[in-house]
Amino acid sequence: MRRLASLFILLSVCWASVSWAQVKLPPIDDPNFRPYPMALPEFKDLGTGASVLAKQGLETLRSDLAITGSFKLLDPRSYLADPAKEGISSATINFADWLNVGAEGLIKIGILKQGDDVVLDCHLFDVATGRQLLAKRLEGTQAKLRHLVHVWADAVVEHFTGLPSVFFTRIVATKKVGRNKQICVMDFDGHNERCVVQNGSLNLLPAWSADGKGIFYSSYIKGGPYLYFLNLVTGKTRVVSRARGLNIGAAASPDGKWIALTRSQDDNSEIYRIRPNGSGAKRLTRNFSIDSSPTFSPDSKRIAFVSERSGTPQIYVMDLDGSRVKRLTFRGNYNQTPDWSPRGDWILFNARDERLVYDIFKINPDTGEIRRLTQDQGNNEHPSFSPDGNLVVFSSTRTGESKLYVMSADGTNQRQISRGKGEYSTPEWGPWIEKKSK
Q: Alpha carbon of 260 to those of 326, 332, 434: distances in Å?
């Protein structure tokens, strides 16, 4: 009996270790992916009258984890445990109650208000073993509550995926207000929107610099359209490309060495490669048809683009020097706006069907496999991958005016993020930036 008991204890310990060690979530569009069931009860007010802040913090955390698509947040109405009576440490938690509602992970947060400051005592538990996986104590002003919650949510995501979250990334887009088009920057979830280019003219097709510190965009402010660069750190703007005709559709290479764009200086729209300062221009395409919409591969060695050389707009790929051109799309007669995944495994694009409706697809550049991501919800256009490749931002007219939406890379979990008035279009998701700069 002693041997059996010892064996049972050993197996239990081994199982607990395996259970704890194996929880690493694959990419969302991986065949083996399944959302991780997470219980997220209300923040526990540690006796300082922080109930309002607790509610705000919980809403932010639920939104953060939900938008990732990596977690299945359990309905609080199903909880057996009473969060008001239960504590935030493992000794005060009845894990059986959480296991019985299907939770695999449990987040417990205590909140303390100290004058104008707030303290978050954050804990993540593996429900099956009762083991604490993460713990953080975060302090800041009450005005920084969203930031503190993002820091904790980021730690949770990185624990399960091995990658930083998108919670400290930004999105840039064009916003039409009246007859003018502005360039606006916002957080990953649409919060903290600010329009950084408002000059009373048409400003188009914004694109992030490789380091996320600036934005390339085309503008008619002085004729053109010419390509400009706005340094978000200094606030200064400079001209990058002002060749005769079009200077539009810029894309920065991930290594920061090149900009690809469309120029029409040769009386035809062609793809050019230039340095970020505008020097070293090299023409990459040579075809009588229109070539446009370049996007770089994650290793900066290839460029996907749109060409009408086959009679209709299709997606093509070429090397950085313009050689080895290969056609990718053969289905449909109107495929545009490619965006290459940071993982290199997919290229997003939007296509127009026989009903003249636009939807979003992705194609594997190696196998040619195509998957549809949107359908029967207005026009969905200009998709852009998040820096982890798990999410996609795009514009959609499903509610009337064109607004910005985010979805998982497999087309699920679609939600609106733009909140302001006006029509939003041509979004691009920015790279990861240092959290301290947020």
A: 18, 26, 26
Q: Which helix (H) or strand (E) holds 349?
A: strand 347-352
For residue 51, give the DSSP letter. H
72, 60 Cβ separation under 8 angstroms: no
The structure tokens listed for 244 are 């005769």
Are residues 357 and 379 in contact, defined by beta-carbon separation less than 8 angstroms?
A: yes
Chain position carrying tokens 């056609």:
327
CATH number of the structural domain 170-437: 2.120.10.30
Among 142-151, 325-334, 427-436, the least confident range: 427-436
Tokens of 340: 């290459």
Q: 79 — phi, psi (to 5°)?
A: -65, 135
* Preceding amide of 27 cis, omega within 30: no
> Bridge partners of 230?
215, 237
DSSP string for 241-261: E--SS-EEEEEE-TTSS-EEE
- Measured distance CA(5)–CA(7) in Å, rounded: 5
CA–CA gap between residue 410 and residue 398 (Å, rounded): 19
Q: Are 405 and 147 in contact (CB under 8 A)?
A: no
- Give the per-residue pLDDT at 10: 35
Q: Is 253 helix (H, G, I), strand (E, B) or coil?
A: coil
Element (H, E) at 239: strand 237-241
Residue type, 151: V
Q: What pLDDT sits at residue 20?
A: 40
Contact, 263 vs 242, CB < 8 A? no
Q: In CATH terms, are 25-161 and 170-437 the same topology?
A: no
Which burial class, exposed, middle or buried, applies to 92 when counting CB atoms under 10 A from its CB (0-12, 13-18, 19+)?
A: exposed
Whether 426 and 206 have beta carbons less than 8 Å apart is answered as: yes
Q: For the chain, give the mean pLDDT.
A: 91
CATH no. for 25-161 = 3.40.50.10070
Domain map of the chain by residue range? 25-161, 170-437
CA 188 – CA 384 distance, rounded (Å)? 12
Q: Is 68 helix (H, G, I), strand (E, B) or coil?
A: helix
- Of 115, 172, 175, whose CA–CA distance to 139 is shortest? 115
Spatial distance between the Cα atoms of 31 and 415, rounded to a whole number of angstroms: 23
Distance CA 46, CA 119 (A): 10
Q: Evaluate whether 297 touches 319 at the Cβ level (below 8 Å).
A: no
pLDDT at 17: 35
Three-state DSSP at 92 gives helix
Supply 296's token pair.
């770089």
Structure token pair of residue 64: 């953060």
